[in-house]
Amino acid sequence: MILALETSCDDTCAAVVTQAGELRSNRIASQGVLHERYGGVVPEIASRRHLELIEAITADALEVAEAKLDEVEAVAVTVGPGLIGALLVGVSFAKGLAAARGLPLAACDHLHGHVVAGTLGPHPIQTPYLCLVASGGHTFLARVEDPARYEILGQTLDDAAGEAFDKGARLLGLGYPGGPEVDRLAHAGDPRAFDLPRSAPGDGLDFSFSGLKTALLHRVRDLGETAARERSADLAASYQRAVVDALAARTAAALAAEGLERLAIGGGVAANSELRARLQTVCDEHGARLWAPPIELCTDNAAMIAAAARFTEPMPYPTYLSLDAAARPRRASSA
Ligand code: KG4
Ligand code: ZN
To answer: Measuring CA to CA, how many Å separate 259 from each of 20, 142, 148, 252?
Structure first.
């Protein structure tokens, strides 16, 4: 049994997963409400809250899994990328827990976790596959030949897709995080009401979302406060359609160029209802199969870190005692 911890941003997460990929528990203590009034995550507040929550969420994960600490064979933890102070809470706690029991520790990459979340559960995705990861901090397409690593085929050149949702939501006067709010409001709007740009930078598989956000800003300004409020559903639907179009176009191009027949999606934006439906259509058109994990495996969680741990060489006790967290990705193109 693997006990995994994830504290890279504002969710305190713990999970118990078997080496075979069976999900025994996946617990998340969201700090969303705490950061809402600031319109974004405040790193210092996130770290303090992780400290308050991590022990309880770990106990909770073990309880839900009906497992005892004695049964845990390995500890896994996110070492990066993420907020350094937040990461350090998880890393220190994991080190202490593992060292106290002489257990091995797997130092996992957060993005690798998003990439391999689809390998969990009763119907795991098989390699090779294409993976679209779209979260608040990252947006990329990766080819996975071996679940121990991934090759980045294209990525955002500026804002992440989740960041685009969050910034767009703020322009529309919606709460934080903005993705779910835009998703909800878009159901009541007309996605063709406003013509917004779909940027496709270069000839490859990269993304760009900063121009779209600026275009929305101009639309909102042109309409004026009252009209923009009255038409917020149309604006949300048009904006969401533009983000989904951009993500779907490059995903379709990657499936074709790479000759892949399986697509996995991950990251918070993979919870978006329109994106999920559109990627199903893209897969149908390409004769491919879509692995859209349940939403709690798409947004930040520790089960995906346990999934990554299954494909990460664990460090034996006591070599990990000097392990450090890293705010930035360890390597640009692989886990
Ligand atoms: O993966 P995640 O939980 O955390 C990061 O690693 O960033 O992703 C969070 C992001 C936020 O930007 C949030 O607005 C977005 O995912 N998100 C969504 C939806 N649910 C969460 N974006 C669009 N539609 C959603 N339903
Ligand atoms: Zn994430």
So the answer is: 28, 13, 21, 10
Q: Which ligand is nearest to the CA of 308?
A: 2
Distance 135 CA to ligand 2 centre (A): 6
| CB 180 near ligand 1, within 6 Å | yes
Regarding the beta carbon of 113 and ligand 1, being less than 6 Å apart is answered: no
Q: What is the mean pLDDT for each group of 10 consecutive residues in the chain (335 residues)? A: 95 96 94 75 89 97 97 97 96 98 97 97 96 96 97 97 96 92 98 95 95 97 95 98 98 98 97 97 98 94 98 97 87 45
Rounded distance between C-alpha atoms, residue 314 and residue 98, angstroms? 11
In terms of CATH architecture, what is 2-116+300-322? 2-Layer Sandwich (3.30)
User: Beta 139-144 vs 151-155: how paired, if at all?
Assistant: antiparallel
Q: Delimit the CATH 3.30.420.40 region(s) of the chain.
A: 2-116+300-322, 126-292
Closest listed ligand to the CA of 115 = 2
Answer whether 7 contacts ligand 1 (Cβ < 6 A).
no
Ligand 2 midpoint to CA 44 (Å): 18
Which pair of structure tokens corresponds to residue 256?
Answer: 């074709």
Which of 309, 279, 304, 303 minimizes the C-alpha distance to 291?
A: 279
268 lines ligand 1 (CB under 6 A): yes
Compute the chain's Rg from CA coordinates.
20
Backbone angles phi, psi at 263, to 5 degrees: -130, 130
Claim: this prediction has a pTM higher than 0.90: yes
Structure tokens at 188: 């009541």
CATH superfamily of 126-292: ATPase, nucleotide binding domain (3.30.420.40)
